[in-house]
Amino acid sequence: MNRRVSFPKKQFCPAFSLVEVVLALGVVSFAVITMLALVPTSMTVYQQAEANNVETQIVQKVSTELQNAPYHSLFNPAGVGTNTTVFGTTGERFYDMEGDLTNGQSSPNPAVYAVTMTSYPFTNVSSGGPMTFADGSGNVLAQTVQFNIVSHSRTNTFSALIVNKGY
Amino acid sequence: MALVIVLFTLLIVSALVVSFLTAVQLETRASASYQATAATQQLSDTAVNMVLAEISAATSQQAPNIWASQPGAIWVFDGTGTPKTIYRLYSWPSTTATSGTSLLGDASQMANWATAPALWVDLNAESASGKYPIIDPGSNPNALVDGFSTNSVPSSGTSATPSLPMPVQWLYVLQNGAVVAPTKIDNNTVMVSGGSASNPIVGRIAYWTDDETCKVNVNTAGGDDGGAAPTVSGGTVGTSFYANNAGATFWDVPHFNSSDDLSLATNQAVQGEYQRYPGHPASTALSYLLSSLMGSTLSSANFYSLTPRYAFGGSQGGTVGISSGEMNIPLKSDRLYTSVDDMLFSSSNRAASTINSQSANCSAAMQRSRFFLTAHSVAPELNLRGEPRVSMWPIWDETPGNGNWISSAAAWTNTAPVPSGDAKHMTAFDQTLSFCSTLVSGGYAYPYYFTRANNTNVVAGTDPINGGNGQGTPDVLIARNQKLLGYLDAMLTNAVPGFGGTFSAPGTSSKWNANVDAQLETRQVLTEMFDYVRTINSLDPNLPQVVTGGATYPNNVYAAGTPSSGNVLWQGISVGAGQVAPTEISGYTKVNGTAWGTQGYGSLPLLTEADLHFVAIGQNTNLVTGAAPAPVFSDQIGYRGDPSAGPTYTSTGMLTSNVNLPPTNSVAVQAYLLLNFVNPNHWTPWAHAEPVFFVDVSGLNGLYLNGYPLFSIPNNQDCAVAGGIKYDALASAQWGAFDFRGMVADRVLGPGYDNAASSGLGNYPFYSNIVGVTNTPTMSVGSNPAVTNALFVPLTIKIYQPLNTSYLTVSTGLQRGDLVQTYTVNVPNATITTPSLALFRRIGTPGGNGNGGTNGGPQSISGGTTATVNSDRWRDIFADGAGGQAWEMATYFQSGNNVSHILAGSWPGQDVVQGMVLAPAWSDARMLAISNVPSSAFITAPGYGNGLTNLAYGIRAFGMPLPGPSFGTLTKNASYSAWPLASPSINGATTTGGVTGDWDNGTMSYPDGPYINKTDEGNQETGQGVAYYQWNQMFTSTNGVYFSPNRQVPSPVMLGSLPTGVDPSGNHPAGWQTLLFRPGPAGHPGSTVPEDELLLDLFWMPVTDPYPMSESFATLGKVNLNYEIVPFTYINRSTALRAVLSSEKVAAVPFNKASTYKVEWSSSNNLGGAARLSLNLGSDTGSDGGTLQQFRDMFTGAGSFFSGTPMIFRSAAQICDVFLVPQGYSWTSGSAAQAAWYGTAFAMVGDNERERPYADIYGRVTTKSNCFKVHYTVQSLKPAPGDMTATTCQWNETRGAITGQYSGSTVIERYIDPTASGIPDYAVQPQPLPSSVPNLESFYRWRVVEQHQFVP
Predict the structure, then answer these.
(1) Interchain CB distance below 8 Å, B35 and A123
(2) SS3 of B28, please?
(3) Between B21, B34, B93, which is nearest A38 by CB?
(4) Which of A23, A25, A41, A46 should be substituted to probe chain B, the one whose Cβ sees the most B Cβ atoms within 10 Å?
(5) Nearest to B1250 by CA among B1004, B1056, B1086
(6) pLDDT digit string (tens) for A21-37?
(7) Contacting residues of A for B42, CB less than 8 Å apart
(8) C-beta atoms surrounding B332 within 10 Å
């Protein structure tokens, strides 16, 4: 007997073709990769923004510290016209990622920001030419302190005007 | 489906990524914003710090350079006063200028400023909400407040027309910190030198600095207008406002018998009424400013609810009289305002203040007020050399181990420890005043004030000159005093910084007195100053009180005297009270080893006249000659009073018994010496000073009368003199003179004449023998006829101070101390009239005491007629002679009436007085402040020795004219009623150069004279008399009701009556010229270079009451004379200076009032007009003749009165060059003003009253500020990349990005930490300071006292 066994006909479910899969993966990959490609840049921007904030904080801290410190302990009055290193002989300070002062590279607060500071008599370039402010004895009364902050493989420059407030 | 999934996935991923990126972006923006904010704050700090550095550079000047400030600039002058560098305190292409002309030109550059935004910015730009950062001009700036107006506001050049722009130029800031004035490319583009791509522009700043001393300080000012709200027109209130003394209230010691002065006496300021204390910062007007700014009237009560330390009450601005029940105003202790805005809240409980609740627009008003008011205005108290000023207030010396008195000079060191506050001798006032004037280093205090502990000038047993009979160390020998005198002396030996000229150039003639060495004359003036300070507050009522004899009086005060018994206390004052021996810097007393040869005044009287008073004590008529007693001279018939056998008289004056009378046709004559004194540092009526001293006379025994020895008195005959022993009011220094009555009052002649001494002073020794002379019209007096060629008899009169300051005990009497002065008085030989017996005044009985009557009533006289006179008892000095009992002489003086009868002037031919008075060159008694007064100082009085004139003398009593041939005048030909203390040898006091002389007005109705302007130590109405006006007013030593250091000493201008012509050698006195602290008459020696007023700069008077308004060498609330605003010269703001001047008045007494302006107290206005004129301040523009026109002329260089070129005031002392134009007058020129002020309309106004307004003003003004308000606008910038190259950087308004902006203001203050290390003791430094010694300007510190962000 020839008996035909019939099986229920399976409904057709079209599958992703390889092409589709490849294409989809390609599109997704391209899109994702493209977008992910922005992440490092964005991260860098983010880090820079954060670094900028921290650096600004550092500048403010140091500026305040300098402004409140005895002027003559910072600057050599005799150094008129010459750069004078502030904060000791090294002229360098380190700050961690939070912008707090740290000793150096060691943990737990590794240095992220290296700050070098130099000063020179403040110059006001007026129509009459550069002018510094000095007292009757020739001692410079105002110094420009320039901060070079190195972090994340870049260097930012800030400056502050520090004046002799008499202490 | 796949696509959907893919897309969905992509969506999710994208969302995540976008979210991340957004977060990054936000963070970046936040970071950028943060950085921009930080950058703008950094930029604002840069602006403030630039100003700070500029000010530091400008003010750290060493002599001879000086500096002065104004809103917007600080000027530095060289040693001659030429502008050297002018620091612009506003952002401008050039930080400095070299001339005022250049500075004033800045405003002209502002035309069309708004068209160039890359260059200009308006610091006062109105915000969208209608707010102004600096000053809201309102709809009509000229009606805003007194002293504020605008004119010729620069055009903006655009359609926008700001009401009150204040444009300044941008300064660009590079990344490396350089601040660069840009170079204009076009209106929107500028090139910034030094900029580049690697050093880009990071921001720009614009600023202008206001001078806080050009505003009224809300913590110190308290002048009230009593509720009147002025109507402002053109920036100036109406004249009637000031004419009514509105704005603030005036006070001065009464000097004239006018309604004005009567009100000053009856409505004087009480304790705590600081707003009426002359010269006090509280007298600066504030109430009317607030009313104007608020737009509504503040009542006095509401106004004083705002002032943190002043209260309403007392005289209520002089509007009500003061009775004993309204003596003081309780002190307030509210917190001081930290800012003007703080006034919105009550100073006591932080609730809404009167202002806050009164005005609907108070917030706007307070914002506007910031331009006129401040809570922080401080001015330095350094001299022109940048070194400490010396305080005017004396402090008790506290040298360790000293206790009360100094045992030896060696005990003193150069320094003293930090004052610990000796409660026994130092009040809280003293301690604060001490702190203000002290620098501390190494645990030692370096005080810059004079100390005192010894009101004598006697030396402890080692003085080879004066005999060393005293005790203690003279104040001048206190080591620190020596150092300070040396400090002042050294400074005056050098040219005056910033002005030029030297007071004390060695080897040159003095500018004051060409015949005297400049250094000697200057040292003489310094000695006078030292003594003046030393005698201030000598009876401090705030020290512990003690009760003795039922009376309370101050203890441990400098010159208390001795209350030895009940009757010596009179109104709280005791014998010797207030006496300070003059300082002598000679012999043993040296300054730093050098005897200057100078002398001060102290408060001892000076001898001004010596008279011989001849009295006929017996005159035979037709009676029988008696026999006893024996004659003094063998060839004469003697006559001597005998208590048991004297003559008696009938009720009609005829002799009834006849004993001891001289023979027929003869007269028994007796003479005695009268000495008259003047105390230039007179006290009355402020304190009844009771001089105590010794008079020692030699040479009387050389006088002969008709060939007979007149006196039998040995040389060096002493006579103790003490005022206040019995009849205080009469014997003391009344009327500024210790006149002859003070010496003879309450004295007797002793055995043979009197029964007993009654005063404890001993007998009066200077009486003569009784000489019988023929009853002829004349007799001869003079030298011994046996001596040929003797033309005169020299008398030597020495003045000694008492042995100790416990002057007197009744039991021991006085003991003589050290020699003070020696006078030589020559008595020329002369023929004089013969006295006759004044019998008829020995009659009458109304007094009922058997002494011939005491006080008035019609008296029977010889012949049965009557006359309305008191009986004369002058002869009472001769006991039982023609008079009665000896003590009656004093009694007579006590009566105080009809003094003209004393010398029998109404009966010619009776008494004869022949006197030696001061010569014209010495007519100014202040010239007598020397150790040895030569005989040339005295000449015979007019009429002396002419054989015709009975009375040739110049003495007076009670200021009233005694009968005599003439009296001196101070104002030529003036018809005085109260004759001034001028020698009869002069008619009109002038300097040696013929310039109108300097003399002082006496207080109330006291006569004018050569006084030195003693400070007012207080006076009160007692219920018996009007304060200051009547003799029974009271000095307030017992309660201190009116005590305040600043009321006594408003400022160093009080020194202005110290003479400058004293010649210590006695050869060339130059009288009637004093320190000139006002615009002087042409030719006054005080006007020559260096001008006297510059001496003011060496001194200051700290303000400590009601709270310390002075700190270490600085004073709050001072107002800058230099009110002109640069570069905004189109904005006029004289508001603060007007607030100072509004409380002042000018004395005006014309020539034709000489007979009425000094009469005894009367409720009527004897002047018939105002004696005090308010000021005509004028407007702020043009030549309107107001006082302030002189200021404008100074600022603009108009005219030549000041300089002729634009300048500012270099020293506050220059206020003394400004004529205070009174209402009704106009200022046109210096010469016209001189002519007017020294003309007839002011002829009776003395030196002290002319200078009094300046004394009140000087202490409240300055030319230097310690507080500055920096207004700024800053922007952080990001130039377009295309505007930067490797070597250039420019800014374009349209291409560049403004990343942040910040506007606001910061108040910075410079101050001195008195304990800062390294401050040298300037008193021991050579002058000028060596280069290694910085002046005090170099030790200033800075602090930020107020910060304000402008919120648009």
Answers:
(1) no
(2) helix
(3) B21
(4) A46
(5) B1056
(6) 888 888 888 877 887 78
(7) 59-60, 63, 160
(8) 17
Tell me if chain A has a CB within 8 Å of the CB of B31. yes
Tell me if A24 and B62 make a contact (CB, 8 A cut-off).
Answer: no
Biggest alpha carbon distance in chain A?
129
A69 to A80, A166, B1119: CA distances (angstroms): 19, 10, 33
Helix or strand (DSSP H, E) at B15: helix B2-59
The C-alpha atoms of residue B594 and residue A8 are separated, in whole angstroms, by 140
Q: Does A39 touch chain B (CB under 8 A)?
A: yes
For residue B1342, which phi and psi values (nearest 5 degrees)? -120, 150
Nearest to B1258 by CA among B1174, B1336, B1141, B1175: B1141
Position A135 confidence tier, pLDDT thresholds 50, 70, 90: confident
Name the residue among B6, B54, B1334 with its Cβ closest to that of A28.
B6
pLDDT at B893: 32
CA B632 to chain centre: 57
Q: Are B820 and B800 in contact (CB under 8 A)?
A: yes
Q: How far apart are CA A103 and CA B999, in angstroms?
A: 78
Q: For residues A23 and A26, give the distance between their C-alpha atoms in angstroms, rounded to a whole number.
A: 5
Q: Please tell me the predicted confidence (pLDDT) of residue B906.
A: 33
* Neighbouring C-beta atoms of residue B12, cutoff 10 Å: 10
Q: Are A86 and A74 within 8 A, CB to CB?
A: yes
Instruction: For residue B556, count other CB atoms closer than 10 A to its CB.
Output: 17
Residue B275 CB-density burial (10 A; 0-12 exposed, 13-18 middle, 19+ buried): buried
Q: Which residues of B touch A60 (CB under 8 A)?
A: 38, 42
Instruction: Please tell me what DSSP assigns to residue B592.
Output: T
DSSP B509: B
A42-84 pLDDT, tens digit each: 888 888 888 888 988 998 888 888 888 888 777 765 544 445 5
Compute the residue count for chain B.
1352
d(CA B1133, CA B372): 8
Q: Is A3 exposed, middle or buried (0-12, 13-18, 19+ CB in 10 A)?
A: exposed
Chain A residues inside the 8 Å CB shell of B1340? 166
Question: Any CB–CB contact under 8 A between A102 and chain B?
Answer: no
| pLDDT at B1268 (0 to 100) | 98
Where do the H-state alpha helices sit in B220-361?
A: 239-243, 259-266, 287-294, 300-306, 354-358
Tell me which residue has tokens 């070079």: A148
Distance from CA of B1191 to the nearest CA of A (A): 30
pLDDT, averaged per 10 consecutive residues of chain B (1352 residues), comes to 73 80 82 86 93 93 93 96 95 93 93 95 92 89 89 90 92 93 95 94 97 96 75 75 68 85 82 88 90 82 88 83 68 88 74 66 79 95 96 80 32 40 71 86 82 69 40 75 94 95 92 95 97 88 65 65 47 64 84 91 89 74 34 34 39 40 66 86 60 89 91 87 50 49 63 47 76 81 88 94 55 70 96 70 30 33 33 32 31 31 40 89 95 95 86 67 68 87 90 94 84 83 65 50 83 97 95 96 94 97 91 94 96 95 92 84 64 90 90 87 86 96 91 94 96 96 97 96 93 95 96 87 93 91 93 84
Q: How far is Cα B1183 from Cα B1221, in angstroms, rounded to an integer?
A: 13
- Please give the Cα distance from B1204 to B1194 (Å, whole number): 8
Chain B contacts of A117, Cβ < 8 Å? none
Inter-CA distances, B273 with B290, B319, B331, Å: 20, 13, 9
Cβ atoms B348, B334 nearer than 8 A: yes
Point out which residues pair with B900 in neighbouring strands.
none
Q: Which of B49, B60, B181 sits opposite A126 (nearest CB)?
A: B181
